[in-house]
Amino acid sequence: MHAIMLKAKLHRAIVTHAVLDYEGSCAIDGEWLDLSGIREYEQIQLYNVDNGERFTTYAIRGEEGSKIISVNGAAAHKAGVGHRLIICAYAHYSEAELANFQPRVLYMGAEGELSHTSNAIPVQVA
């Protein structure tokens, strides 16, 4: 049996660029790609906290240390500069892999900087 699980998440990443005439994708600071385990050209899901848009694209490597989150191509209609995104990647895992499974979660600060990382999402309380 296999399960599709959250592989990686950038929580509340701030859009720094929205480039309609770029051929597509979402550029993410290369350091953040490496920390999250998201690969260049990997499919990602983007959830816009500010307007509720949800869309799919793929990741490309942005300049390391730049804090870039650039939503490109048609997706630029769905997220603008300053919007907060939740960027997720999912993967298939076998039952054996699930025994030690932990997602990589990067939490972004109010100014677009990396705040901290975690391997778990806090339990939601009532």
UniProtKB/TrEMBL annotation:
* Annotated catalytic residues: 25 (schiff-base intermediate with substrate), 58 (proton donor)
Which molecular function terms from Gene Ontology are attached? Answer: aspartate 1-decarboxylase activity
**What GO cellular component term, any one, is given?**
cytosol
Q: In which pathway does it act?
A: Cofactor biosynthesis; (R)-pantothenate biosynthesis; beta-alanine from L-aspartate: step 1/1
Q: Where in the cell is it found?
A: Cytoplasm
Task: Summarize what the UniProt record says about post-translational modification.
Answer: Is synthesized initially as an inactive proenzyme, which is activated by self-cleavage at a specific serine bond to produce a beta-subunit with a hydroxyl group at its C-terminus and an alpha-subunit with a pyruvoyl group at its N-terminus.
InterPro entries referenced in this protein's UniProt entry, alphabetically: Asp_de-COase-like_dom_sf (IPR009010), Asp_decarbox (IPR003190)
Instruction: Name a biological process GO annotation.
Output: pantothenate biosynthetic process
| Enzyme class, broadest EC rank | lyase
The cofactor note from the UniProt entry for this protein is: Binds 1 pyruvoyl group covalently per subunit.
- What broad class describes the main subcellular location of this protein? cytoplasm
Question: What SUPFAM superfamilies would the database entry show?
Answer: ADC-like
What catalytic reaction does the record list? Answer: L-aspartate + H(+) = beta-alanine + CO2
A Pfam family (short name) is: Asp_decarbox
UniProt KW Lyase keyword: yes
**EC numbers, comma separated:** 4.1.1.11
Q: Where does substrate bind?
A: 57, 73-75
Which UniProt key words apply to this protein?
Answer: Autocatalytic cleavage, Cytoplasm, Decarboxylase, Lyase, Pantothenate biosynthesis, Pyruvate, Schiff base, Zymogen
Q: Which cofactor does it need?
A: pyruvate
Q: Which residues carry this modification: Pyruvic acid (Ser)?
A: 25
Function description: Catalyzes the pyruvoyl-dependent decarboxylation of aspartate to produce beta-alanine.
Q: Which family does it belong to?
A: Belongs to the PanD family.
Under the heading NCBIfam families, the entry gives: panD
Q: How does it assemble?
A: Heterooctamer of four alpha and four beta subunits.
| The protein's name in its UniProt record | Aspartate 1-decarboxylase
- Look up and give the organism this protein is from: Aquipseudomonas ullengensis
Organism classification = Bacteria, Pseudomonadati, Pseudomonadota, Gammaproteobacteria, Pseudomonadales
